[in-house]
Protein backbone atom coordinates (compact mmCIF):
# COMPACT_ATOMS: atom_id res chain seq x y z
CA UNK A 1 0.00 0.00 0.00
CA UNK A 2 1.35 3.43 -0.94
CA UNK A 3 1.73 5.69 2.06
CA UNK A 4 1.98 9.42 2.74
CA UNK A 5 5.11 9.87 4.83
CA UNK A 6 6.47 12.92 6.66
CA UNK A 7 10.20 12.97 7.47
CA UNK A 8 11.57 15.67 9.75
CA UNK A 9 15.35 16.21 9.48
CA UNK A 10 15.91 14.55 6.10
CA UNK A 11 18.49 16.47 4.07
CA UNK A 12 21.45 14.51 5.40
CA UNK A 13 22.37 11.28 7.20
CA UNK A 14 19.79 8.61 8.03
CA UNK A 15 16.90 10.91 7.02
CA UNK A 16 18.33 11.46 3.51
CA UNK A 17 18.87 7.70 3.10
CA UNK A 18 15.29 7.00 4.24
CA UNK A 19 13.89 9.66 1.90
CA UNK A 20 15.37 8.01 -1.21
CA UNK A 21 14.38 4.57 0.09
CA UNK A 22 10.74 5.55 0.62
CA UNK A 23 10.57 7.33 -2.75
CA UNK A 24 12.00 4.20 -4.44
CA UNK A 25 9.21 2.20 -2.76
CA UNK A 26 6.67 4.53 -4.47
CA UNK A 27 5.47 6.41 -1.38
CA UNK A 28 4.47 10.09 -1.27
CA UNK A 29 7.13 11.84 0.82
CA UNK A 30 7.18 15.26 2.48
CA UNK A 31 10.41 16.45 4.06
CA UNK A 32 10.83 19.19 6.65
CA UNK A 33 14.43 20.17 7.28
CA UNK A 34 16.64 23.16 8.09
CA UNK A 35 18.33 23.09 4.68
CA UNK A 36 16.92 23.07 1.17
CA UNK A 37 16.66 19.72 -0.60
CA UNK A 38 18.45 18.56 -3.74
CA UNK A 39 15.75 15.96 -4.44
CA UNK A 40 13.66 16.50 -7.54
CA UNK A 41 10.98 13.80 -7.70
CA UNK A 42 7.26 13.97 -8.57
CA UNK A 43 6.36 12.30 -5.24
CA UNK A 44 8.51 14.60 -3.11
CA UNK A 45 7.81 18.01 -1.59
CA UNK A 46 10.11 19.90 0.75
CA UNK A 47 9.62 22.51 3.46
CA UNK A 48 12.71 24.42 4.57
CA UNK A 49 12.14 24.91 8.27
CA UNK A 50 14.23 25.00 11.45
CA UNK A 51 12.48 22.89 14.12
CA UNK A 52 13.91 25.19 16.80
CA UNK A 53 12.42 28.34 15.24
CA UNK A 54 9.42 30.08 16.81
CA UNK A 55 7.26 29.40 13.75
CA UNK A 56 7.86 25.62 13.71
CA UNK A 57 4.52 24.77 15.36
CA UNK A 58 2.49 26.87 12.88
CA UNK A 59 4.53 25.66 9.92
CA UNK A 60 4.03 21.99 10.91
CA UNK A 61 0.33 22.63 11.58
CA UNK A 62 -0.06 24.14 8.10
CA UNK A 63 1.78 21.20 6.54
CA UNK A 64 -0.37 18.61 8.38
CA UNK A 65 -3.59 20.44 7.47
CA UNK A 66 -2.66 20.13 3.79
CA UNK A 67 -2.32 16.30 4.00
CA UNK A 68 -5.62 14.37 3.82
CA UNK A 69 -4.12 11.36 5.61
CA UNK A 70 -0.68 10.96 7.23
CA UNK A 71 0.27 7.28 7.38
CA UNK A 72 3.79 7.52 8.75
CA UNK A 73 6.02 10.18 10.35
CA UNK A 74 9.69 9.89 11.30
CA UNK A 75 11.36 12.49 13.51
CA UNK A 76 15.09 12.40 12.66
CA UNK A 77 16.23 15.98 13.33
CA UNK A 78 19.05 15.94 15.81
CA UNK A 79 22.24 17.72 16.79
CA UNK A 80 24.97 16.97 19.28
CA UNK A 81 28.43 18.26 20.02
CA UNK A 82 31.13 17.96 22.57
CA UNK A 83 30.43 19.97 25.75
CA UNK A 84 32.08 23.37 26.01
CA UNK A 85 31.44 24.67 29.54
CA UNK A 86 32.04 28.23 28.29
CA UNK A 87 29.17 27.86 25.82
CA UNK A 88 26.13 26.43 27.58
CA UNK A 89 23.88 28.19 25.04
CA UNK A 90 24.89 25.44 22.61
CA UNK A 91 23.58 22.88 25.12
CA UNK A 92 20.23 24.70 25.26
CA UNK A 93 20.07 24.54 21.45
CA UNK A 94 20.44 20.75 21.60
CA UNK A 95 17.31 20.54 23.77
CA UNK A 96 15.43 22.89 21.43
CA UNK A 97 16.16 20.75 18.35
CA UNK A 98 16.30 17.20 19.73
CA UNK A 99 13.68 17.48 22.44
CA UNK A 100 11.26 20.39 21.97
CA UNK A 101 11.14 19.99 18.17
CA UNK A 102 10.29 16.33 18.72
CA UNK A 103 7.75 17.05 21.47
CA UNK A 104 5.90 19.60 19.29
CA UNK A 105 5.95 17.14 16.38
CA UNK A 106 4.66 14.32 18.58
CA UNK A 107 1.79 16.53 19.80
CA UNK A 108 0.60 17.66 16.36
CA UNK A 109 1.21 14.36 14.53
CA UNK A 110 -0.44 12.17 17.19
CA UNK A 111 -3.38 14.56 17.35
CA UNK A 112 -3.88 14.08 13.59
CA UNK A 113 -3.29 10.32 13.67
CA UNK A 114 -5.79 9.86 16.50
CA UNK A 115 -8.41 11.91 14.64
CA UNK A 116 -7.93 9.87 11.46
CA UNK A 117 -7.72 6.69 13.62
CA UNK A 118 -4.61 5.34 11.92
CA UNK A 119 -0.90 6.09 11.65
CA UNK A 120 2.59 5.21 12.85
CA UNK A 121 5.01 7.68 14.44
CA UNK A 122 8.68 6.69 14.62
CA UNK A 123 10.95 8.73 16.86
CA UNK A 124 14.71 8.36 16.53
CA UNK A 125 16.32 8.29 19.94
CA UNK A 126 19.68 6.70 20.78
CA UNK A 127 21.28 4.00 22.91
CA UNK A 128 22.83 7.08 24.56
CA UNK A 129 19.56 7.18 26.53
CA UNK A 130 21.31 4.83 29.00
CA UNK A 131 24.10 7.32 29.75
CA UNK A 132 25.05 10.13 32.08
CA UNK A 133 27.61 11.78 29.83
CA UNK A 134 30.20 14.42 30.78
CA UNK A 135 31.12 14.71 27.06
CA UNK A 136 27.65 15.54 25.73
CA UNK A 137 25.22 15.93 28.64
CA UNK A 138 22.50 17.69 26.65
CA UNK A 139 22.48 15.07 23.87
CA UNK A 140 22.10 12.12 26.23
CA UNK A 141 19.61 13.98 28.45
CA UNK A 142 17.47 14.89 25.42
CA UNK A 143 17.47 11.25 24.27
CA UNK A 144 16.63 9.96 27.79
CA UNK A 145 13.62 12.31 27.88
CA UNK A 146 12.52 11.31 24.38
CA UNK A 147 12.81 7.58 24.98
CA UNK A 148 10.80 7.73 28.20
CA UNK A 149 8.20 10.07 26.63
CA UNK A 150 7.70 8.05 23.42
CA UNK A 151 7.67 4.70 25.22
CA UNK A 152 5.17 6.03 27.80
CA UNK A 153 2.90 7.30 25.03
CA UNK A 154 3.29 4.01 23.15
CA UNK A 155 2.19 2.08 26.26
CA UNK A 156 -0.82 4.37 26.67
CA UNK A 157 -1.80 3.84 23.01
CA UNK A 158 -1.33 0.09 23.39
CA UNK A 159 -3.64 0.05 26.46
CA UNK A 160 -6.26 1.90 24.35
CA UNK A 161 -5.94 -0.96 21.80
CA UNK A 162 -6.22 1.65 19.01
CA UNK A 163 -4.60 1.47 15.58
CA UNK A 164 -2.17 4.41 16.16
CA UNK A 165 1.36 3.23 16.96
CA UNK A 166 4.61 4.78 18.24
CA UNK A 167 8.03 3.19 17.86
CA UNK A 168 11.11 4.46 19.69
CA UNK A 169 14.22 3.60 17.64
CA UNK A 170 17.56 3.59 19.45
CA UNK A 171 20.72 3.40 17.36
CA UNK A 172 24.31 3.01 18.50
CA UNK A 173 26.75 4.65 16.07
CA UNK A 174 25.66 5.31 12.49
CA UNK A 175 28.09 6.53 9.84
CA UNK A 176 26.89 10.16 9.46
CA UNK A 177 28.30 13.59 10.35
CA UNK A 178 26.56 13.23 13.73
CA UNK A 179 28.86 10.40 14.90
CA UNK A 180 31.92 12.33 16.09
CA UNK A 181 33.38 9.99 18.73
CA UNK A 182 37.04 8.97 18.14
CA UNK A 183 36.09 5.28 18.51
CA UNK A 184 32.80 4.05 17.06
CA UNK A 185 32.36 0.35 17.87
CA UNK A 186 29.90 -1.67 15.77
CA UNK A 187 29.04 1.41 13.67
CA UNK A 188 26.12 0.87 11.26
CA UNK A 189 26.13 2.24 7.72
CA UNK A 190 23.29 4.59 6.72
CA UNK A 191 21.93 1.75 4.55
CA UNK A 192 21.85 -0.64 7.53
CA UNK A 193 20.11 2.01 9.65
CA UNK A 194 17.53 2.62 6.89
CA UNK A 195 17.02 -1.13 6.46
CA UNK A 196 16.27 -1.43 10.18
CA UNK A 197 13.85 1.51 10.01
CA UNK A 198 12.04 -0.27 7.16
CA UNK A 199 11.71 -3.35 9.42
CA UNK A 200 10.20 -1.12 12.13
CA UNK A 201 7.80 0.39 9.58
CA UNK A 202 6.66 -3.15 8.68
CA UNK A 203 6.46 -4.24 12.33
CA UNK A 204 5.95 -1.34 14.74
CA UNK A 205 7.35 -1.92 18.24
CA UNK A 206 7.60 0.24 21.35
CA UNK A 207 11.40 -0.06 21.62
CA UNK A 208 13.63 -1.03 18.71
CA UNK A 209 17.41 -0.99 19.25
CA UNK A 210 20.37 -1.66 16.90
CA UNK A 211 23.01 -2.99 17.00
CA UNK A 212 21.88 -5.27 19.82
CA UNK A 213 25.48 -5.99 20.89
CA UNK A 214 25.91 -2.29 21.74
CA UNK A 215 23.22 -2.50 24.44
CA UNK A 216 25.41 -4.21 27.11
CA UNK A 217 28.44 -2.11 26.08
CA UNK A 218 26.63 1.22 26.46
CA UNK A 219 24.88 -0.16 29.55
CA UNK A 220 28.28 -0.84 31.16
CA UNK A 221 29.54 2.70 30.44
CA UNK A 222 26.24 4.00 31.82
CA UNK A 223 26.63 1.95 35.00
CA UNK A 224 30.22 3.15 35.56
CA UNK A 225 29.14 6.80 35.32
CA UNK A 226 26.08 6.17 37.50
CA UNK A 227 28.35 4.66 40.20
CA UNK A 228 30.68 7.69 39.90
CA UNK A 229 27.69 9.98 40.49
CA UNK A 230 26.34 7.97 43.43
CA UNK A 231 29.67 7.39 45.19
CA UNK A 232 31.25 10.78 44.41
N1 LIG B 1 24.68 9.04 13.65
C1 LIG B 1 24.65 8.44 14.81
O1 LIG B 1 25.64 7.86 15.29
C2 LIG B 1 23.35 8.36 15.59
C3 LIG B 1 23.26 7.45 16.65
C4 LIG B 1 22.09 7.36 17.39
C5 LIG B 1 21.03 8.19 17.07
N2 LIG B 1 21.14 9.08 16.05
C6 LIG B 1 20.00 9.96 15.79
O2 LIG B 1 19.54 9.79 14.47
C7 LIG B 1 18.93 11.00 14.03
C8 LIG B 1 19.50 11.38 12.66
O3 LIG B 1 20.89 11.64 12.84
P1 LIG B 1 21.96 11.54 11.67
O4 LIG B 1 23.07 10.73 12.18
O5 LIG B 1 21.31 11.19 10.39
O6 LIG B 1 22.44 13.07 11.69
P2 LIG B 1 22.74 14.09 10.47
O7 LIG B 1 23.44 13.40 9.38
O8 LIG B 1 23.39 15.27 11.10
O9 LIG B 1 21.26 14.48 9.97
C9 LIG B 1 20.39 15.22 10.78
C10 LIG B 1 19.33 15.86 9.92
O10 LIG B 1 18.54 16.74 10.74
C11 LIG B 1 18.56 18.05 10.17
N3 LIG B 1 18.50 19.07 11.21
C12 LIG B 1 19.45 19.38 12.14
N4 LIG B 1 19.04 20.42 12.87
C13 LIG B 1 17.82 20.78 12.42
C14 LIG B 1 16.91 21.80 12.77
N5 LIG B 1 17.17 22.69 13.74
N6 LIG B 1 15.75 21.89 12.07
C15 LIG B 1 15.49 21.03 11.07
N7 LIG B 1 16.32 20.07 10.67
C16 LIG B 1 17.48 19.94 11.35
C17 LIG B 1 19.90 18.12 9.45
O11 LIG B 1 19.91 19.17 8.52
P3 LIG B 1 21.35 19.92 8.22
O12 LIG B 1 22.26 18.84 7.67
O13 LIG B 1 20.99 20.98 7.28
O14 LIG B 1 21.83 20.43 9.55
C18 LIG B 1 19.94 16.74 8.80
O15 LIG B 1 19.14 16.68 7.66
C19 LIG B 1 19.23 12.04 15.13
O16 LIG B 1 18.11 12.18 15.95
C20 LIG B 1 20.36 11.42 15.90
O17 LIG B 1 20.38 11.85 17.24
C21 LIG B 1 22.27 9.17 15.29
Sketch the topology as an H/E string, one letter per element. EHEEHEHEHEHEH
Report helical residue fraction: 40-55%
Q: What's the pLDDT, averaged over the residues?
A: 97
CATH architecture descriptor? 3-Layer(aba) Sandwich
- Spans of at least 5 consecutive residues with low confidence: none
By CATH reckoning, the class would read Alpha Beta
Put simply, the count of helices is 6
Distance between the termini: 55 Å
**Which class do the helix and strand fractions yield?**
alpha/beta
Q: Could you name the CATH topology?
A: Rossmann fold
CATH superfamily: NAD(P)-binding Rossmann-like Domain
- Whole-angstrom Rg: 17 Å
Strands of the widest sheet, in order across it, are 3-2-1-4-5-6-7
Query: How many domains make up the coordinates?
Result: 1
**What ligands can be seen in this structure?**
NADP nicotinamide-adenine-dinucleotide phosphate
Tertiary shape: globular
The overall strand count is 7
Beta-sheet strand percentage?
A: 15-25%
Strand count, sense and barrel status of the largest sheet are: 7 strands, parallel
Amino acid sequence: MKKTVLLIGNTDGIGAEMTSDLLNQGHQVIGISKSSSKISHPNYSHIEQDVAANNFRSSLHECLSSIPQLDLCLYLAGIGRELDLADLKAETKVFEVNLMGAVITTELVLEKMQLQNTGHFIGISSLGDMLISPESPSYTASKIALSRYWEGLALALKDKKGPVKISNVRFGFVDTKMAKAPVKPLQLTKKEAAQFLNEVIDRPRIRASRPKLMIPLVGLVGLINKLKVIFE
